[in-house]
Amino acid sequence: MSEIAVVAISVAKPGYEEQLRQALEGIVGPTRKEAGVLQYDLHRDVQEPRRFVFVERWESQEALAAHAKSAHIDVYRKAVADWVEHAEIRVVSKIA
Fold this sequence. Notes:
Blueprint: E1 4-12, H1 17-32, E2 37-44, E3 51-58, H2 61-68, H3 71-80, E4 84-92
Antiparallel strand pairs: 1-3, 1-4, 2-3
């Protein structure tokens, strides 16, 4: 198994910042209980408060794939579909 890291960014549509924040906070607890999660931390951009950033570490690509298919993530995606202006997920591996 090879550890991977993820940077996941979600930008709220204007006026939906607090709804998105609450929804994002709601997936932290269940995700931290998942097999294979090493780190799952939610941040808010200081300069651009509509931007939320997850910094994640997973034991493997397989653990991340299982997370993506989890019930709480599916519920989250459906709930926030109209609140998110932009989302980006970058999966990276440490080289130094």
